[in-house]
Amino acid sequence: MCLAVPGRVLDIGEKDGTRMATVDFGGVHKEVCLEYLPDLQVGEYAIVHVGFALQRLDEESARQTLALFEELGMLQEEFGDPWEQAAAQAGADSPWPFADGPSADGPSAGETAASRHAQAEGGQL
């Protein structure tokens, strides 16, 4: 899901001729394009969607929205590490009794079909 998230401008610069800012989204810092809000200043808040600052926002509204997103877990979903999220989801969807792999009776995580076949035949791989 892509949210429009409020963030506070930390600094402003130019990158390849485009006005850019580092924006703080409740502790997560991202680079954001300011071309739609050319007069936005350091310390101000803006609604950001897919890397573009779209609308100026007052501080109280920004803080309330960030607090709500945090409470709902939406900031982690939006800004969290995608590998960490995928691993957590894979663990939740795992058919094994433990999230980190099969039980003692089942195959090990690194075991392949070929190695299981070789073991069944009494041979080595």
Structure description:
With 125 residues, the protein is an alpha+beta fold. It has a domain at 5-91: SH3 type barrels. Helix content is 32%, strand content 29%. It has four helices and five strands. The protein has a five-stranded antiparallel sheet with strand order 3-2-1-4-5. It is globular and about 45 Å long. It starts with a strand and ends in a 5-residue tail after the last helix.
Write a concise synopsis of the structure shown.
This protein is an alpha+beta fold. The chain has helices at 59-72, 74-79, 82-93, 113-120; strands spanning 5-15, 18-25, 28-33, 45-49, 52-57.
> Strand fraction band?
25-35%
Q: N-to-C terminal Cα separation, in Å?
A: 45 Å
Rounded to an integer in angstroms, the radius of gyration calculated over CA atoms is 23 Å
The class by helix and strand makeup works out as alpha+beta
Order of the strands making up the biggest sheet: 3-2-1-4-5
- What is the arithmetic mean of pLDDT? 75
Which fold name corresponds to the CATH topology of the domain at 5-91? SH3 type barrels
Taken in chain order, the helices and strands follow as: EEEEEHHHH
Going by CATH, the architecture of the domain at 5-91 would be Roll
| Continuous helix count | 4
Number of strands: 5
